[in-house]
Structure formats: structure tokens, C-alpha cells
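Supplementary Methods, section 5.1.

A reviewer requested that the exact input to the structure prediction be made available. We therefore reproduce it here, unchanged from the version used in the analyses.
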Amino acid sequence: MPSRLAIRHFPDSILRRVSEPVRTVDRQTRIFIDQLIKFMKCQPGGIGIAAPQVGVPRQIAIVDASAKVPGAKLLVLINPVITTFEHEAIFREGCMSLPDFTANVRRAEKIKFEWRDIHFKKQEHITSGLEARCVQHEIDHLNGFLFVDRVVSLKTDVFRRKRYL
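The structure derived from this sequence is encoded cell-by-cell as follows.
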């Protein structure tokens, strides 16, 4: 695990790799998860991050939509899998690994998913809206996909991010 975290940007090849499943949560993994949470919280607008985005090809992601979704809480997702998808919707997304762009992305509006928590206990949750979108986005990172792989149209639905001085 890296001692200092930094975002990997496209076209870094680690972003296209399928991450390795976590077999156990040892001390080193817990330290990495704590670092990943702190790092995500320091990023402007960051509500999710996946281990491959900082160069670690393991099935670990953090999602925290609590600032924008009432009742949501920080989720540490280890080996997450979506088991049910319902109702597609198109919504604008961005990503720390492609910081110069946003895009209209088609995703399920509601999902059911399972994962292992920090204690390696199996969890299951149903969510919708922004939290569901974020979970799908981070799981995509674990499987080597980026949000631009799911855009409606590469010609009309990818936008250069506005910069303000």
C-alpha cells in the first residue's frame, strides 16, 4: 500500500484493470482504508473513491453521500457486488480520475448490493438516487470501467469542466 495517496488520472492503466478481491481485513488493510477515507474527504466535492484511483488494485471503495442525501452514511465497501438494478436514469457525473470532464451517464436509479464491511461481515443494502449512482460509479472503478464508458453519446454528452478563478 502506498504511504502517500495521490489520484491516478486517465489514461493510467491501473484504472482499466479488474481489481483483486480482498481475502481478509488485516491491520495494513484497515490503515489503508482509514487513509482512503481521509484522502477522499480532502477532495473538493468527493463523495466516493475506489482503491484503484490511488494505485491500489484491490476491491475497496468508499462512498459517503451523507452531505447531500439525508439518512445516508459513510460506506466502506469491500468486494461489493450489485445484485439488482431498477429503472435507468441519465444524470451528470464527474470523476477525480478525469478531472477536466463531466458527462451525462446512464445508470440504474435504484440498486440492491452486497459487500463486506471493515470487519469483513457481509452487508446488504437497497438505495436509490445519488447514493445508488455513486455506488455504481465506484464499483465500476473496481472492474476497470470509467464513467465515460457509460455516457449516452460521446459526441453530445461529454463536457469540459468549467474552471473558475
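Residues 13-160 form a domain with the Peptide Deformylase fold (CATH 3.90.45.10). These observations are discussed further in the main text.
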